[in-house]
Protein: Circularly permuted type 2 ATP-grasp protein
Amino acid sequence: MTGTGEYFDEMHASDGGVRDAYAGYQQWFAEQGSKYLSRKHRDAETQFRRTGITFNVYGENEAEERLIPFDMVPRIIDAGEWRRLTRGIEQRVSALNAFMHDLYHRQEIIRAGRVPERLFRNNAAWLPNMVGFTPPGGVYTHIVGIDLVRTGPDEFFVLEDNARTPSGVSYMLENRETMMAMFPELFMRVPVESVSNYPRRLAKSLAACAPEMTQGRPNVAVLTPGIYNSAYFEHAFLADQMGAELVEGSDLRVVGGRVQMRTTRGYEPVDVIYRRVDDDFLDPLTFNPDSVLGVPGIMDVYRAGGITIANAPGTGVADDKAIYSFMPEIVEFYTGEKPLLPNVETWRCADADSLKYVLDNLAELVVKEVHGSGGYGMLIGPTSTKAEIAEFRKKIEARPENYIAQPTLALSTCPIFTRSGLAPRHVDLRPFVLVSPDNIDITPGGLTRVALKKGSLVVNSSQGGGTKDTWVLKD
Structure:
């Protein structure tokens, strides 16, 4: 398997040689027999079934729950590349947090004409309840996932910002645990940075954001919508790994001006809630009155400084793909620097000139809903039929402000294990970032998602993608 020339192959150079980052792995791989590797590939799937790492697919009748596909060939990033990426990620996350504070306070970036007011005034993720309020420690985005794609040796782009409730970290951790269990000798030969301490770092970071009134060690809980949520495995996994309580809305109530948790000893105050419940369901007294997933009155306690909610309500504005298109201006406005990690070129269909260009070139572009996620609600022009393009054209024309468009990127490839050997498949990367009042902590690795279908550019698990272990090499 060699680089095709059309896409950047992260393992092999165009002459067929192995790149330095993969040299140790390639040497080990060449020493293994094909029967041994095939058996290990089956073992990995068995372990994932035993662990229960599944996800739910909505809107499909034949199967609600599926196994997360896992590929046992790691995605490898050298230490120098990772240092460059972390500088860009830190800059972007710092700007995102400053942007959120500004949006809910003086709105200087809007006064300066750098971001149009319409982007958030008509945005369902914008919460008037947060205006004038600063979360404990000044942190809005406690846990952030920045989706990156690569197109060349030194060409990384930010594809998406996940500042609301980024998911996938449990798969990052289980991928590594599976690899270490299957190939312990490989980790003796190739020095790889650890990711296993993420839960401890998460607990420490959340505790550092506890309200000022907290006495003693902060009490941290993970708020889940329940067992039927697509990411419930992750909620339970992280709570267990952090030593935190996993709670549902029915386990919590407001007592004496504090959010308290039901225990065998009665109710105990909670200081920090890592919530995996959407804003609209968080407090039926403030948002959706029909919600049974949240805690009545929790927003009053929050605004009174009695609890930390991570991530802060209202951070979903930063997930909006129309806001994403302004991130270069946002980064420069709050940091005074040019972005170290560029955006993918983006056309905003709300702009007349951009709309005309998009409609004229639908067959070559990727079009996304500004509030869409998970690979849903999008058009990939080069792989769509004329009928699909025509149907999507009608949607854009009806609500142009609901869409952005981007070029079809030449995503880099990494090898996956197949019956016939290694074969290149397209990948992206979601590093996970923890933010506390005095620190931005980036786990060395992240979740690599891989398009398991040959030629596919869609890496989402809901659309047929899988995951890989991500290795950052030690110096």
The first helix runs from residue 23 to 30. DSSP finds 14 helices and 22 strands in the chain. The longest strand covers residues 143-152. The chain has two domains: 20-211+307-339+409-472, 347-407.
